[in-house]
TrEMBL record:
One of its GO terms (cellular component) is plasma membrane. Keywords: FAD, Flavoprotein, Oxidoreductase. Residues 227-364 form the Acyl-CoA dehydrogenase/oxidase C-terminal domain. Belongs to the acyl-CoA dehydrogenase family. Residues 9-115 form the Acyl-CoA dehydrogenase/oxidase N-terminal domain. It comes from the Bacteria. The lineage of its organism: Bacteria, Bacillati, Actinomycetota, Actinomycetes, Streptosporangiales. GO terms for molecular function: flavin adenine dinucleotide binding; oxidoreductase activity, acting on the CH-CH group of donors. Its cofactor is FAD. Gene3D superfamilies: Acyl-CoA dehydrogenase/oxidase, N-terminal domain, Butyryl-CoA Dehydrogenase, subunit A, domain 2, Butyryl-CoA Dehydrogenase, subunit A, domain 3. This is Pilus assembly protein CpaD. It holds the Pfam family Acyl-CoA_dh_N. It comes from Actinomadura syzygii.
Amino acid sequence: MTAEPGDVETFRAEVRALLEEMADVLDPRQFFHGRGGATRDLYRELGRRGWLSLGWPGEDGAVPATLAHEFALWDELAYARAARPDLAAGIVAKTLVVHGTEYQKARFLPGIALGDVSFALGYSEPEAGSDLRAVRTRAVRDGDVYRVTGEKRWTSDAHHSDYLWLLCRAEGVADGDPHTLLILDLRAPGVDIRPIETIDGHRLNEVFLDDVVVPVTDRVGAEGQAWRLIREALAVERHLMVLPGRVRRDLESLVDWAREHDFLDDPLLRDRIEQLTVDVQAVEVLAAEALARSLDGADCTAEAARVKLVGSRATQEIARAALELGYLEATRRDDDLAFLWRESMMETLAGGSSEIMRGVLARAEFGLGGR
């Protein structure tokens, strides 16, 4: 990293300079196209510069001095629509640093830090979306390996990834919670990845697992520890749940579209843009609050849930503004606003639905709810 800790604005300028250098190889909508191809090439460049590991905690879980730099990195990339945060360098690496075995750290962390090793998250299933405790994928111990059978659904980037960060049920756990984390090789026999196409041209996946062999050495933590590890991983990633740079860029797209079509004289549209500007500013303030809590090593569950609620709603309101005011020009399939409208439909679902976020706030802020 070229910026010293604390010099975040200088670091942001370095990130923007890199994006200018790579402008010819990045699709203008690369942010929405998944984590393979040109996005993986960008991750490798970030890794070469030492930027993918900016947010990694100490082995004791201590907050790194460069956590604000990590936020700045992904915020700039989101504004440029260049890439979403790398799952391997985020949830996976941050868990392995603290809870991985020495074998796992040596095997996975160097490649992750360089952007060469990729992971998808294997959480959701056909009967376990928001309620992950209902997962049915099972892992049966057979000597030094597990045999894994089940199905994962809505799995982003499985077709681009080397490994699956797998939530499953370890069969035969005598007492307590059977939920366990495994690292499953997506190239192993018995893995079948099938596409789920979305309305915005993105691809999700179904991942079928038929007696897939996973070495016991690729279990993360002990059997039954999955929930604790997942909660800890989310706690150190919450400041990246919604990146305000992406929301501001969407608003700028709306303003540019209105200017291009000479619609800024419409008082209704101007009023709507002013309202949306306030919404974007709210996202920026809430994201800053979540980051500040993270920098202090404090729990930012409630702050992150607020960012997710306000940010996902803002992206949808921005994308729908021209359509709701009756501008047919915004319905053309190749139009930027039409694309954002299709893409925004998933924003209140992906990464935790709005209903789940409201439940989080109800528990964290008001002590409501049984779980």
